[in-house]
Design goal:
single chain, two-stranded antiparallel ribbon, alpha+beta, C2orf54 isoform 4
Length: 133
């Protein structure tokens, strides 16, 4: 009885294509998690610094957090982030226009943030910072 033939390179077991994709994803998983953590740290540092510089601005950490996390995990390109800041309602100015009311009967007013406030200073170039500071 002849000995079984050894498989040649043409007969070698083929690894499914999805296996290669899975290996690629796993090899990038740890660096992506580190990138995500760094981006989150930078964002929170910036937002906390903004609030410390001017307490009229209140950070909304909850809005779109899942979408933000997904974008960080799935994006390979630099991405822009829109960060919602609330303004303390007590700090708002309400200005009623001096003109007559519009024909549709709606009353209009303008909302603004005062330039000066008790215990608040204007932002200057010294207030500019990087997230690493």
């Amino acid at each position: 009885m002849p000995a079984p033939a050894l498989p040649t390179s043409a007969m070698a077991v083929q690894v499914p294509l999805w296996h290669h994709y899975l290996q690629a994803i796993r090899s990038r998983e740890a660096p992506r998690a580190q990138d995500f953590q760094r981006a989150e740290n930078v964002l929170l540092t910036v937002l906390e610094r903004v609030h410390a510089l001017d307490p009229r601005f209140i950070v909304d950490y909850s809005r779109g957090l899942e979408a933000f996390q997904f974008a960080l995990r799935s994006s390979e390109d630099p991405m822009d982030m829109e960060v919602p800041l609330w303004v303390d309602a007590e700090a708002l100015l309400i200005e009623e226009p001096e003109a007559t009311q519009p024909e549709d009967g709606l009353e209009l007013c303008h909302l603004g943030v005062p330039r000066e406030g008790a215990g608040l200073e204007r932002w200057t170039t010294e207030d500019t910072f990087t997230a690493s500071s």
